[in-house]
Amino acid sequence: MTNQSTIDKLIEMRLTAMADAFRIQMDDPAMKEVPFEDRFGMLVDVEYCNRKNNRLKRLIRQAEFEQPDASIAAIDYHSGRKLNKALINRLVTCEYITEYRNIFITGATGSGKTYMACGFGMEACKHYYSVRYVRLPDLLLDLQAARDNGTFSTVLKKYTKPIVLIIDERLLLKLTEAEARNLFELIHKRRKKSSTIFCSQFRESEWYQQICDGESTLADAIMDRMDADASLSADLKQKMIRNVMNGRWFSAALDARYGNPTLWK
Fold first, then answer.
1. Is 263 exposed, middle or buried (0-12, 13-18, 19+ CB in 10 A)?
2. Is the dihedral of CA 50, 63, 198, 113 positive or negative?
3. Is residue 101 a contact partner of residue 229, using CB atoms and an 8 Å limit?
4. How far apart are CA 109 and CA 38, in angstroms?
5. How far apart, in whole angstroms, are the C-alpha atoms of residue 198 and residue 13?
6. Using CA atoms, how far apart are residues 30 and 167, in angstroms rounded to an integer?
7. d(CA 139, CA 159)
8. pLDDT tens by residue, 244-264
9. Left (φ > 0), alpha (ψ -120 to 50) or beta: where does 83 sit?
10. How confident is the model over 43-62, as pLDDT tens digits?
């Protein structure tokens, strides 16, 4: 068997990176002194790394980030923002994903909610989790159109399948009864199976009013699904709530909801 025949077969099996590495080895006289096992290991490493890199690029592309250049490492902690660096570093490990927990990021327009959410999403991609970013207005339009044309179940899977779903501009406008019902279906399907990152200009105490003016039972149902986290004990949940980031991001409202003394006055 000729070397070219081996290269052709590697390419046919879609092992192109290995084929290129093998060709380079053949052209390097120094490689003749390297044991076969070592040379073969080098070829496997090249193919493995290439596939991993391609997978990461595919996950990032499929996530459709609003800010694809977002990076947690680039966050400025010295501009008076009072961010909890220790907590952010813990979230970067993606431990919250393995425990099916959600992240709530709240703050005024321009405070960096979307950037941070996309940064967390990028870290999830680096851990090879599937991620999807969507603005809530676009999500609601997509779900309602699907319900109207009879493809709701199919379209819903598009948002329940990703391990991490980033919902931006959450409750920017008040939800109608139909929109609240669609959102409830999505959140209910994702609970205990995946993690969701919510970004909103409103603190949690104001969310009820944004869901059918707080008058629908769907408001309570949606909030309950978002709060539910059976994978954590009540004690651990309280500790996490007490140690979340500055109220500018997502702590004060949660402290108020769970009756904890706030640390961010």
1. middle
2. positive
3. yes
4. 55
5. 42
6. 54
7. 9
8. 433 333 445 555 655 655 554
9. beta
10. 999 999 999 999 999 999 99
Query: Which band of pLDDT confidence, cut at 50, 70 and 90, is reported for residue 17?
Result: very high
CB contact at 8 A, 146 and 156:
yes
Is the pLDDT higher at 46 or at 79?
Answer: 46
CA 173 – CA 169 distance, rounded (Å): 9
81 vs 124, more confident: 124
Name the helix (H) or strand (E) containing 186.
helix 177-190
d(CA 190, CA 162): 9
Residue type, 63: A
User: In a 10 Å sphere around its CB, with 0-12 CB exposed, 13-18 middle and 19+ buried, how is residue 35 labelled?
Assistant: exposed
User: Quick check: 163 and 97 in contact, CB under 8 A?
Assistant: yes
Residue 151: helix, strand or coil by DSSP? Answer: coil
* Cβ 25 vs Cβ 31: under 8 Å: yes
